[in-house]
Amino acid sequence: MEKNAGYTIKEAVTFENGAGFALGENHKAPNPFVTWQFTVNERGKRDYSGAIISTTSTGPRPICRPAPQITSGGTSTRLR
Predict the structure, then answer these.
(1) Distance of alpha carbon 24 from alpha carbon 57, whole angstroms
(2) Is the pTM of the predicted complex or chain greater than 0.90?
């Protein structure tokens, strides 16, 4: 299982452009749930940046759900 900064990566979603988000969990940390933005590098590994800390004690909602997609015209549609 992949780890980052002491957190186990529980879920991740990668978009076609190689960018994505990952959810980390560490129940021993002051903030047990963290979300990172990442990019996939040329070796196929994730380069993480900018942790977003969740302060909820019940845990985050699943991140692998349909998300809005912004087209070049600026309109929003749902992925299916």
Answers:
(1) 14
(2) no
DSSP bridge partners of 49: 37
Apex CA 54: angle with CA 52 and CA 57, to 5°? 165
The torsion defined by the Cα of 60, 65, 67 and 49, in degrees rounded to 10, comes to 50
Read off the pLDDT band of 10 (50, 70, 90).
very high
Annotate the chain with DSSP letters as a single string: --EETTEEEEEEEE-TTSEEEEEEE-TTSSS-EEEEEEEE-TTS-EEEEEEEEE--SS-PPPS-S--EEE-TTS-EEE--
- Which residues, at least 6 apart from 19, have a Cβ–Cβ distance to it below 8 Å? 37, 38, 39, 40
